[in-house]
Amino acid sequence: MKSMYTYLDLDDELQELTEEEKNWFFTTCQDCLKALGVEIPVYALRHDLLMGKSKDALGICWKMADSVTAAPKEAYITIDTYFIHECYEAKFHGRWNLSFETLESVIAHEVAHLTVWRHGKKHRELTARYCAVIDASRRAS
């Protein structure tokens, strides 16, 4: 099974996101980015295949190597495929979300890196503001 939508389940069996999971993922990404007024590509990726701390990340904002102030079109976001599956199962099937994060909160966190790269007070405040904007937009629709 070769796909950018694969993940290892809790039994270390290779699985692939279902069409429903993929559709929910892309719709959620579009809704969040629209609410924030941001255009940036968001992809599913098996983070467990990455090196170092990146393999444990729920989401990653990728920028040009030497650029700290890159515009959104010079960057992209990846969301871990197992995390997508976990969020979908929690939302639609009442399963436990072991990360205690939502897809929306991770998208907000990664979009905040476009403005504030380093984790700290400003990044936390911006992430919280983005989460509130996304939440308000979802409640209004």
**Radius of gyration, whole Å:** 15 Å
Runs in which pLDDT lies below 50 for 5 or more consecutive residues are: none
CATH class category = Alpha Beta
Give the spatial strand order of the biggest sheet: 3-5-4
CATH fold assignment: Collagenase (Catalytic Domain)
Overall shape: it is globular
| Count of alpha/pi helices | 4
Count of extended strands: 5
Give a brief outline of the structure.
The protein is an alpha+beta fold. Helix content is 43%, strand content 13%.
Commentary on this structure:
- This protein has 141 residues and is α+β, with helices and mostly antiparallel strands.
- It has one domain: Collagenase (Catalytic Domain) (3-Layer(aba) Sandwich), CATH 3.40.390.
- It is 43% helix and 13% strand.
- The chain has 4 helices and 5 strands, in the order ββαβββααα.
- The strands form 2 sheets. Strands 3-5-4 form a 3-stranded mixed β-sheet.
- Strand 1 (6-8) and strand 2 (14-16) form a beta hairpin.
- The longest helix is centred in the C-terminal third of the chain and has 20 residues, at 121-140.
- It is globular, with a radius of gyration of 15 Å.
Descriptive terms for the model:
Collagenase (Catalytic Domain); 3-stranded mixed beta sheet; single chain; 141 residues; two-stranded antiparallel ribbon; 4 helices
